[in-house]
Write a structure and sequence with these properties.
The protein is an alpha/beta fold and 468 residues long. It has three domains: 217 residues, 3-Layer(bba) Sandwich (FAD/NAD(P)-binding domain); 124 residues, 2-Layer Sandwich (D-Amino Acid Oxidase, Chain A, domain 2), CATH 3.30.9; 51 residues, no CATH class. The chain has twelve helices and 19 strands. The strands form four sheets. The protein has an eight-stranded mixed β-sheet, sandwiched between helices. β14 and β15 form a beta hairpin. α1 packs parallel to α8 and α8 packs antiparallel against α9. The longest helix is centred in the last third of the chain and has 24 residues. It is globular and about 70 Å long. The two termini are 44 Å apart.
Length: 468
């Protein structure tokens, strides 16, 4: 196993507690080992010893992809991680060259891009990260343990630890409540975070919240992967659009299988029976997903999940912060899962925290939340902005938004005829390029030229190096 040791700041804090042993919590724990003598990771679940779904991560059964930016971030935090992921069976793919992308019904031009992403189940990603973190000096992982609340100094301006209790029947036994002293507590417990309740109990102000209705229902099922499937491609993505609030994706992952997800919004709900799933897939632009459902052997039962809204908590706008308390990952901002940004955003926040800790620990909550807000801006813009394309979604739309939407609609069509436009679109989606890159003068000119060559929705003019 590759060493994760790296130079870091002097250890000014003796003990840090991370709530949540998911991707966000494990990434944060890795960073804190540079600044703290001890790090304790706490999770409600009894953590599995092999990759397996768990109750605390209900989305763990659904299709997951590690975006190009997320792969770089996790390799920065855990050198060699993506090599280890591939060795465990995950797929490594050129995002544009090894997959079909249907944007507004147009199939994007397929060509090598150098944008490398990975297909792996969420349990596999967590298992490998958890093993890395558990091997670090000074780290302890306590599973089957519930966090009851925060312990604070008498003036309630700073935390002093967390109150915990072993869950009945868990590996930690049946001992009663105890307080773990800590200099720093990071809540990375996901969408079920109780941070707002804890702050309210201590009399601290609560952050404003932005909520964008997503109204997503998605169903994932896994199938045996054969060499003839997809002509050897690694994946397919069909992105829903106004007038077609349906989508889907399939992706090669470990154990020689494909994960297939069908997605619906605003009343469109994928079924879970064989005939219904096939009929739903046949209604999508492009034949790929339906063809796989017809020919591949299913390996499990379909699993359905609902996601009502993307939610962002604006801690950066608070005038007063609780000393020693941070919030990260989905507990800070959760995105429509159709965009696949969660793991990437979490890893980026951990890298940001490492940079801030290296600069010192004074006023850390204010500094972290302000910097994290800037880091979250791009994925939030992509997810919330994508959902606001749908007229069913409530939200503020300025006069320029209509013009921008019309341009991006033409852009998606043009990306079927121009490999550069297709690459830039995917680079933005994978957070490797800023969204403004889509509107650069050179790209505007390409859109005007290529849009005339693009086929109608659903055809995508199958232009690739092998078939033009």
């Amino acid at each position: 196993m590759a060493s994760t040791a790296r130079p870091g700041p002097a250890r000014e804090r003796t003990h840090a507690v991370v709530i949540g042993a998911g991707v966000a919590g494990l990434a944060v724990a890795r960073v804190l080992t540079d600044a703290c003598e001890r790090v304790t990771v706490i999770d409600r679940d009894t953590l599995p010893t092999a990759p397996a779904p768990r109750r605390g991560v209900p989305q763990g059964r659904q299709l997951h992809t590690l975006l190009a930016r997320g792969a770089l971030a996790l390799d920065e935090l855990f050198p060699g991680f993506t090599d280890e992921l591939v060795a465990a069976g995950a797929s490594r793919a050129d995002t544009q060259g090894d997959a079909h992308w249907y944007l507004d019904g147009h199939r994007a031009y397929r060509a090598p891009s150098g944008l490398i992403s990975y297909g792996a189940s969420r349990p596999l990603v967590e298992q490998l990260l958890r093993a890395r973190v558990a091997a670090l000096a000074g780290v302890g992982i306590r599973d089957s343990t519930e966090v009851l609340g925060l312990a604070a100094a008498p003036d309630r301006t700073r935390i002093t630890g967390v109150r915990v209790r072993p869950r009945s029947g868990g590996a930690s036994g049946d001992a009663g409540e105890e307080t773990l002293g800590a200099d720093l507590v990071v809540d990375a417990s996901g969408r079920g975070s109780r941070a707002l309740t804890w702050l309210e109990e201590l009399g601290h102000p609560l952050p404003a919240r932005t909520r964008v209705r997503a109204d997503v229902v998605y169903v994932t099922r896994r199938f045996r992967r054969e060499p003839h499937h997809l002509g050897g491609l690694m994946g397919v993505a069909v992105v829903g659009f106004p007038g077609m609030p349906r989508g889907g994706a399939l992706l090669a992952e470990e154990d020689g299988r494909f994960a297939v997800v069908l997605v619906g919004q605003f009343g469109e709900e994928p079924p879970t029976d064989d005939e219904g799933m096939l009929a739903y897939a046949e209604s999508l632009p492009g034949p790929d997903i339906a063809e796989l459902l017809r020919t591949a052997e299913p390996l499990d039962r379909p699993v359905k999940m609902r996601y009502p809204a993307s939610v962002r908590h604006h801690y950066e706008k608070l005038g007063r912060h609780l000393g020693g308390f941070l919030v990260a990952g989905d507990a800070l901002c959760s995105f429509n899962p159709a965009y696949g940004q969660g793991m990437t955003a979490a890893a980026q926040q951990a890298i940001l925290l490492r940079k801030l800790l290296a600069e010192g620990t004074d006023d850390l909550p204010r500094r972290f939340f302000r910097a994290a807000a800037r880091a979250v801006d791009t994925p939030w813009l992509l997810a919330a902005g994508g959902d606001l394309r749908f007229p069913e979604v409530e939200g503020r739309r300025g006069p320029a938004d209509g013009l921008l939407d019309r341009y991006l609609t033409r852009y998606r069509a043009a990306a079927s005829a121009d490999p550069v436009l297709a690459r830039t679109f995917l680079a933005v989606a994978h957070m490797m390029e800023p969204p403004a890159r889509l509107m650069s003068p050179g790209h505007v000119l390409r859109v005007l030229r290529a849009a005339r060559k693009a086929g109608g929705p659903g055809t995508g003019r199958p232009r690739t190096p092998a078939a033009s």
